[in-house]
Amino acid sequence: MEFVLDVPTHPDSLKIIQSHARTLAEISGFESKRSGLIELACEEAFGLILARADKKEPTNIKFYAEITALALNLNFDDREIPPLPFDQENTKQLLSSLENYDLSHMSERLIGQAADKAYWQPLGRQGNRLQMVFYRNQRDIRTLEDPKFLQAFADDIPEVNAG
Questions:
Q1: Cα separation of 33 and 49, whole Å?
Q2: How do the pLDDT tens digits run along the chain, 163 residues long?
Q3: Can you tell me whether residue 60 is helix, strand or coil?
Q4: Whole-angstrom Cα distance, residue 38 to residue 41?
Q5: Dist. CA 65–CA 22, nearest whole Å
Q6: For the chain, is the Cβ count within 10 Å smaller at the N or the C terminus?
Q7: Residue 1 CA, distance from chain mean position
Q8: Which residues lie closer than 8 Å to 123 by C-beta, 6 or more apart?
Q9: pLDDT score, position 76
């Protein structure tokens, strides 16, 4: 399933982003705590874009979402000034020590902790894209079916010669 939301770079759009993120997380089957983290990551992503937005001439942000069997993929496209590089691996190291906290990059750190993958992608003249991937819970295949409905293969089935 794919969803597209187009909202103006205005603080009032945050409520729309929050609601949309929460609904996408619920549809994807995430538990409450993870849904809250997904919503937080989207709030921070919108905040990063809003902070770089031109206040005199607001533009729109495209919020793309794709739900697959494996993940919830969220993309924020904007036309603002390119952001600083987003380094998710470095983020995890920085968070391990309180003395390394740098409030100017707190949003990137929060996104890095909430998402399984997150990175900025330059789109050339089309702007930038923040991509976030949230892997869905995978169940063991042995738990997908009730064992009382499963039957062993029969040994007495004749072979078919396809020749």
A1: 25
A2: 899 999 998 999 999 999 999 999 999 999 999 999 999 999 999 988 888 777 777 788 999 999 999 999 999 998 765 555 555 555 444 444 444 445 447 788 888 889 999 988 888 888 888 999 999 987 666 665 666 666 666 677 677 776 5
A3: strand
A4: 5
A5: 12
A6: C
A7: 14
A8: 77, 129
A9: 93
Please list the alpha-helical segments (H only) found in 5-161.
14-27, 32-52, 88-95, 106-114
Contacts of 143 (CB under 8 A, 6+ apart): none
CB 111 within 8 A of CB 90: no
Chain-centroid distance of CA 17 in Å reads 13
For residue 85, what are the CA distances in angstroms to 56, 123, 124? 26, 14, 15
Please tell me the total number of residues recorded for the chain in this structure.
163
User: What residue has token string 């939301």?
Assistant: 5
CA 24 – CA 39 distance, rounded (Å): 9
In angstroms, the CA 114 to CA 87 distance is 14
